Every structure is written in structure tokens, then in C-alpha cells.
Amino acid sequence: MKIRGFKHGGIDSMHRVSFEAKSIENAFLPLNALISLRNGPGLAEAEAVVKLGDQVLEGQLLARSTGANSSNMHSSIPGIVRRITQIKDAGSFDSLAIKISLDGSFSVLGKRPERYRWKALNKGDIGYLAQDKGVVRVSTGEPLYPALSKMSVKQEYTLILNVLELDPYSRVEESLFRLRTMDVLDGCAIAARISKPSRIIIAIDERYSAKTLSKIREAIDSCELDAKLQLFKHKIPQDHPRQLALALGINKDDIFIVEPSSLISLHEAIVSNKPHIEQYVFVGGGAIKHPAVLKARIGSPIGDLIEECGGFTSKPYTIVLNNPFTGRAAPDLDCAVGKTTRAILALTESEAKPAPERPCIRCSDCYEVCPAGLKPFLLHKLIQLGKIGEAKAIGLDRCISCGACAYICSSRIALVSIFDTAKKADKDRGQN
Ligand code: SF4
Ligand code: SF4
User: Fold this and answer.
1) Measuring CA to CA, which residue among 273, 296, 298 is closest to residue 37?
2) How far apart are CA 65 and CA 10, in angstroms?
3) Does an H or E element contain 232, and which?
4) Of 100, 315, 384, 415, whose CA is between 20 and 30 Å from 269?
5) pLDDT by residue for the chain (432 residues), tens digit each?
6) How far is the CA of 390 from the centre of ligand 2 (A)?
């Protein structure tokens, strides 16, 4: 099979920390769950439908979607509404959140999940269930059904099931695809029913063995999904939408990327009538004793999940959420798992490689790795001088925030965060 990849830039010689999940464990239930009503920056908040002191059931609606940019939010545990408060979400954006203290009996946990035959449902029924159960696209936090539904009006478009995880640590999508292949593929068939793609591609890392690929092919055949396996180069940031589109030679507006964890949530909502109250999270990094993929209740403090993995081997230098290149540092161990949390990485000092920032030496390594063909050192200089207009003229808006330049920079200049801040400030100025 031809291995596809983008041509310019990227980082391909990346060490990968060895990890293979044998199973996915249920995390302990949190005593308190802090459920954010906004799933990401730039998205809208759901509107609370409970008040202080209310007793809520597991899976009960806490907040209702206010449109295509917000999702219904449900209580991940049975309990009492203790606080409705403004928080700084772990993703570093402001949001209203509801704190539930565990109390009462479980209505979902321990019950054998029902299994309805979704093939008899029409698109409207599927859409109603997906929205009612608050299913989101885990990579962005936007509600999954409206985003998929928008694609169905296109004459031609490609649905990509993205199993690529290219940073050295994260393994949640790979693990889910390996351990729950049939549910992921069934979820993919549901997504295809909603959005009517002209083709479906399953994006796989070139490092998969022939034996694994043949098992995946068998699974695809057995569920009669008209999908094609495609190998992609193990090169950062190949899993970014722009780089996937480039490697396939199609316009990025004509692809829709969805990951296994989103499809599992969709599948559970449609087939088992289950709200999106759980999140699959990889807990790893050199400072974690026993790395694992856990199925955690939304709103669980990240400290609880770390404890469940045996705690720290040594004091971590930093704890990063989601991705070591583009993720955010966790503010503390009390910050809560949300619908877009997929990894908690506790990194040691030798992994984080802290070093003081030094002046740029114009080595142009950042240019060599930039997949957008930009000159990051020049963008940095212009931003330092406050010349945002000139930075935009040479492509600041084409920066996809992949973090490759910051990773490679021997002067340890925080290029990607400088670019993100400049882009945000420019956008805010434009809105005022
Ligand atoms: S990699 Fe760093 S030091 Fe080298 S040119 Fe780019 S910004 Fe300057
Ligand atoms: S973060 Fe932006 S400038 Fe840096 S390598 Fe990625 S696309 Fe290029």
C-alpha cells in the first residue's frame, strides 16, 4: 500500500515511549464532579437547567445546548448540585461549571447496556439522539451531529477516521481502535449515515504491522463498512487536518476528520441510549508509575486519575493536557476532565527539557520543519517589533499551531505560543 505524507517540513525522527494498553479500566468515581458547560474556547456555553441544592441522577440533563456551538451536558454521577460557578477550564478558557457531590444511587453504572438496532433509524432520529445525549467531536469540543450534518450537503466529501497519534506519548485513540474495533467501525457507519460521504478513509500509522493491518481489514469486511485503509507517514504533524488533506491531494474543506473516541460516544448514544458522561483518557509520561488508558467520568479531578495510576514516580516537572506540542499545562491537580481531555501527561524534567530562552541564532531549523512553509524566526522578529500586519503578510494566519518549530528550536523560544497570542490579539482587535 502506498504510504502517504506531506512534502515540506515536519519532524519524523521522534522517539516513541513504548506503551500498549491490555484493557481500558473504569476509573474510580469521583466524590465531586466539576462539569464545565463550555467544551472549548470559541464555543458557546450550555444553559444550566438545575439549581443549587437539586438532587440529580446519573446521566440527568444539567445544561441545555443553546445552538450548534454548545452541547447538552449531563451529570456524570448521581448527587447534589453544590455550586454553579465561573471557572478557568483546564483548557485555559472561562466557563460556567456545575459541581456535583456524589450522593444517591446509580442508574447507568453496573447496568447491562441496552443495544438498539440503529440501522432501522432514520437520520432525524439519529440526529435527535446524538444531540440529546450531548455527543461532541472530542478533538474540538463542537457538537458532532451538526458538524457531520453540514457535510451531507456537499456533492463529494471524504470522511476520515483518524487513528494517527504521532506524539511520543498519547495512545487513547490507538488503544480504543485496537480494543473496541467493532464499536468504532459501527460508530463510523452511523457517522456515514448522517453525512453521506463519497468515501471513507481510515488513517493509520505506517508503523502498524502487517498482522495488525490484516486484522483491521477483516473487521472492516465483517461489518460491511465501505472504508479504505490508508497508511500515513509517522511524521509530526501528519494528523493535522491540513496535512491529511495535503497528503491525500484534496481540499481541506472537503474532508471531515473524526477520531475513535468521538465515534464510541456516538455509538453509545445511538445504540445504548447513553449520554456523553465518560471520557477515555491516557494517563502517562515519565513521572507516572503505571501509565494506563482509563474510562473516566467527566468532571473527575485529574489528580484522582493520576492516583489511580499509582501516583508519581518523582515530582513531575510539568503536567500537560492532551499533547506535549500543542497542549496546555494543567493549572493544578483539581482541574477536571472535560469532553476534550484525552491525555494527562506528567513529564519529568529530562522529558520537558527546560532551558532558559536564548536569542535566535538564525539557524533556520524552524523553517526546515514548518509544514506550512513559513519562516518562524521572521514571524517571531516581526511580532517582537509589534509589526503584526507584516507578520500577517508573510503568513502568520497560515500557521496551524503544530508546535514543530518550538520543539526544534535550540534557543528554546516559545514560538508557537507567541504566534497563538499574536493571532488571538489580532482577532480580538478585529472584533472590537
Ligand atoms: S530554530 Fe530558533 S534559533 Fe533557529 S532560526 Fe528558528 S527561532 Fe532562531
Ligand atoms: S507552529 Fe506554525 S510556524 Fe511553527 S512549525 Fe507549525 S505551522 Fe509552522
Assistant:
1) 298
2) 38
3) strand 227-232
4) 100
5) 799 999 899 998 667 888 888 899 999 999 999 999 999 888 999 999 999 999 999 999 999 999 889 999 999 999 999 999 998 877 778 899 999 999 987 776 666 667 778 888 998 999 999 999 999 999 999 999 999 999 999 999 999 999 999 888 888 999 999 999 999 999 999 999 999 999 999 999 999 889 999 999 999 999 888 999 999 999 999 999 999 999 999 999 999 999 999 999 999 999 999 999 999 999 999 999 999 999 999 999 999 999 999 999 999 999 999 988 888 899 899 999 999 999 999 999 988 887 889 999 999 999 999 999 999 999 999 999 999 999 999 999 999 999 999 989 999 999 999 999 999 888 888 766
6) 17
- What is the identity of the amino acid at 375? K
Is the CB–ligand 1 distance for residue 406 below 6 Å?
no
Does ligand 2 have an atom closer than 6 angstroms to the CB of 402? yes
Same domain? 79 vs 138: no
Task: Give the ligand whose atoms come closest to the C-alpha of residue 364.
Answer: 1
Among 221, 247, 272, identify where a domain stops: 272
Q: For ligand 2, atom 1, which residue shows the shortest CA distance?
A: 401
Q: Give the integer Cα–Cα distance in Å for 320 and 4.
A: 30
Does the residue 359 lie in any domain? no
- 85 and 159 together in one domain: no
Mutate which of 238, 397, 407, 416 for ligand 2 pocket (most atoms within 8 A of beta carbon):
416
Which residue from 22, 91, 98 is spatially nearest to 64, judged by alpha carbons? Answer: 98
Which structural domain, as residue segments, surrounds residue 337? 277-352
DSSP assignment of 283-347, as one string?
Answer: EESTTBSS-EEEEEETT-BHHHHHHHTT-BSS--SEEEES-TTT-EE-S-TTPBP-TT--EEEEE
Residue of 323, 381, 402 best suited for mutating to test ligand 2, as the one with most atoms within 8 Å of CB: 402
Q: Is 409 in the pocket of ligand 1 (CB under 6 A)?
A: yes
In a domain, 24, yes or no: no
Ligand 2 centre from 337 Cα, in Å?
Answer: 28
Q: What pTM was computed for the model?
A: 0.93
Residues 262 and 281 in one domain: no
Query: Is 376 close to ligand 1, i.e. is its CB under 6 Å away?
Result: yes
Rounded Cα–Cα distance for residues 85 and 98 (Å): 7
Domain count, the chain: 4
d(CA 424, CA 401): 12
Task: Name the residue at shortest CA distance from atom 2 of ligand 2.
Answer: 399
